[in-house]
From TrEMBL:
Protein name (database record): Tetratricopeptide TPR_4
Pfam families named among the record's database cross-references: TPR_8
Upper lineage: Bacteria, Bacillati, Actinomycetota, Actinomycetes, Glycomycetales
Species for this entry: Stackebrandtia nassauensis (strain DSM 44728 / CIP 108903 / NRRL B-16338 / NBRC 102104 / LLR-40K-21)
InterPro entries, A to Z: TPR-like_helical_dom_sf, TPR_rpt
First and last residue of the signal peptide: none
Length: 616
């Protein structure tokens, strides 16, 4: 892993002047380097800084990563040749602790690690402040005042910008990325028709992410020239792109926002942030008040947008109207989704970050479920699921707060919205409500909650399987045998992890044995043996062959129903074929299981078959 050389902090962003002021800290000190020229001044360093940014931001478009592929970013020659396309000017405006004297070398450590945006002994570090002017304001979109990060980037020697010729040649040879860069270059020099043609060529690709990127830039080009109709067509084509990755989702979200802007249907947060950036606070407050219809909600939203959380809480405490408090919650949820770091895990621990402060205020409204529903109605929170879905992460964090407070009433109000928009989160919430009902011995209510969770099989059958498993256990406890069997069967089929499938099968087999259904238990234990063999054997084909071997032996023993079940499972992976010694795994586990429930004759017969097969 590379060693960080510098730390970077954003001091100011001036979009109108296309400039950013950065503070650069030297965080690695090698005595052999001497005491001079420790600070970077070459524009190539600042191009690298702008490209990497503090972190990926899928909700913001226009970053350098759209134009510059990672391989080019890592190519020193490419960076030197192309830096001037992006960085117009660099000026160091302040210097501290530089050049160093001998005493400074003694005071400083060799290396300083970044810790939550700061470095130890910052006041002692060699550092400089720089004004960096870029060629397009979009290169600053990912930066916010206060952003800090460590970097392995370094300066090289930037050269003057090359012309378009190399991209023309590559585009003519079918390179769609070259066509995209060519479109941007032509756009920068005012060649509208040439840029349109290049972007359209770039969009003619099987790579759906690259297609979405080219089309969203084409839409922006049309919009900048007041061609609203063609801009909307381009943006709508982006929204229609399917099977995109996280990058593609960023372009789809970008296009959706632009469509709302062009059609005058911006969400409250979009309107607030865009007006705040372009026209200032007073105009943004006026626009938000007109849109949401409440001066108090507008003042709360403006305080949140400017990260004045203390004022936001004071304003919220003065609001009595329930509808206004729900509106405050809706604004906060949308803003949290916009500012949620994309690498946040599914259930991140609470911290002191902006998103946590916002969600704390959302919870303080007392109307967060209604705010969630309002945000869905306005299109401010997308109804999408997946491990990388930022809206789902925010909604899950909202639910976790309600869960930690054991706010049964709020979770009950939350669930209907989540069932429709974020079913994976709803499944967890329904499980909590079922637990609460069981604690109160209200088993009918618990069953009803778990049934709703088990019904949410789309998009994640495994989450619904968890609810079905708990439902099976509850039915078992209450003596509802048929209902328990049905629930355990759903759980076994729906679980993604073999360990969970095995557990569901074992629970059902135990239920059947306890109710004297030996024939049914044999069938379920055969499936359990197959799951256990797959867990035990590293190769998928070995597990399937093991299942086929067990099915064959069960047929010989006259247990055709159990044989059929195992064969059905095994054939999903491999047709019957040549047997190996590993094929005994499922048979062994099945024999052990049935011996435990008293099937000694069949169990002994299967174990003898294994021994005979191994000795032959």
């Amino acid at each position: 892993m590379s060693t960080d050389l510098y730390g970077v902090r954003v001091l100011n962003v001036d979009a109108k002047r296309r400039s950013v002021r950065l503070r650069v800290f030297v965080v690695y000190y090698e005595p052999a380097w001497g005491t001079n020229d420790l600070l970077p001044d070459d524009p190539s360093f600042f191009f690298r800084i702008l490209w990497e940014g503090p972190r990926d931001r899928p909700d913001r478009g226009g970053t350098l990563q759209d134009l510059v592929e990672q391989d080019d970013y890592l190519d020193e020659g490419w960076v030197d040749d192309n830096t001037s396309r992006f960085v117009a000017r660099v000026e160091r405006v302040a210097t501290r602790n530089h050049p160093m004297d001998a005493d400074a070398w003694k005071r400083l450590s060799t290396f300083y690690y970044e810790d939550d945006g700061t470095w130890p002994d910052e006041h002692l570090l060699v550092q400089g402040d720089y004004d960096v002017e870029v060629t397009h304001v979009r290169w600053l979109d990912a930066l916010r005042v206060g952003d800090s990060w460590a970097t392995t980037s370094y300066p090289t020697e930037a050269a003057p910008a090359p012309g378009e010729a190399e991209y023309v040649i590559d585009a003519e040879d079918g390179d769609t990325h070259a066509a995209f860069v060519l479109g941007w270059l032509r756009q920068e020099r005012g060649d509208l028709d040439g840029a349109v043609a290049a972007y359209r060529q770039a969009a003619d690709t099987d790579n759906v992410d690259d297609k979405a990127k080219a089309l969203v830039y084409l839409g922006d080009l049309y919009a900048q020239h007041d061609n609203v109709q063609d801009a909307r067509v381009a943006y709508e084509q982006v929204v229609d792109c399917e099977d995109v990755t996280d990058d593609g989702q960023r372009y789809r979200a970008w296009a959706s926002r632009e469509i709302r802007r062009l059609t005058g249907t911006q969400t409250w947060v979009e309107l607030t942030l865009s007006t705040l950036e372009q026209d200032g606070r007073d105009q943004a407050l006026h626009a938000l008040t007109d849109t949401c219809g409440s001066d108090a909600v507008a003042r709360f939203g403006m305080a949140l947008a400017q990260k004045d959380f203390t004022s936001a809480r004071t304003i919220l405490d003065s609001i009595d109207d329930a509808a206004d408090r729900a509106s405050c919650a809706a604004f906060g949820l949308e803003l949290a989704a916009l500012w949620m770091p994309p690498d946040s895990p599914w259930m991140p621990e609470d911290d002191e970050g902006d998103v946590s402060r916002i969600l704390e205020l959302v919870g303080a409204t007392g109307r967060s479920p209604e705010g969630y529903g309002l945000a869905l109605d306005m299109g401010a929170i997308a109804a999408e699921s997946g491990d990388d879905s930022v809206p789902e992460m925010v909604v899950n964090r909202l639910y976790v707060r309600l869960f930690e407070e054991r706010d049964v009433d709020a979770v009950t109000r939350f669930v209907p919205f989540a069932e429709q928009a974020h079913p994976r989160v709803a499944t967890g919430a329904l499980g909590f409500l079922a637990w609460d009902a069981q604690e109160r011995d209200d088993f009918d209510a618990a069953i009803a909650w778990l049934r709703r969770g088990a019904a949410l099989t789309d998009p994640d059958p495994s989450m619904a399987a968890g609810a079905a498993f708990q439902l099976g256990k509850l039915h078992t406890q209450l003596g509802n045998v048929e209902d328990a069997k049905e629930a355990f069967t759903q759980a076994e089929e729906g679980f993604a992890l073999l360990e969970h499938r095995l557990l569901a099968a074992q629970q059902q087999a135990e239920l059947l044995v306890d109710h004297d259904d030996q024939a049914g238990a044999l069938v379920v234990l055969a499936r359990a043996a197959f799951h256990e063999a797959r867990l035990e054997l590293s190769e998928e084909d070995d597990g399937a062959r093991s299942g086929h071997r067990l099915a064959h032996l069960l047929d010989e023993a006259g247990e055709h129903r159990a044989a059929s079940e195992v064969r059905r499972l095994a054939e999903k992976f491999l047709a019957p074929g040549t047997e190996t010694a590993k094929d005994a795994s499922a048979t062994f586990h099945f024999a052990q299981s049935i011996l435990e429930i008293g099937h000694r004759e069949l169990g002994d017969s299967l174990l003898r078959s294994i021994a005979k097969h191994r000795n032959s």
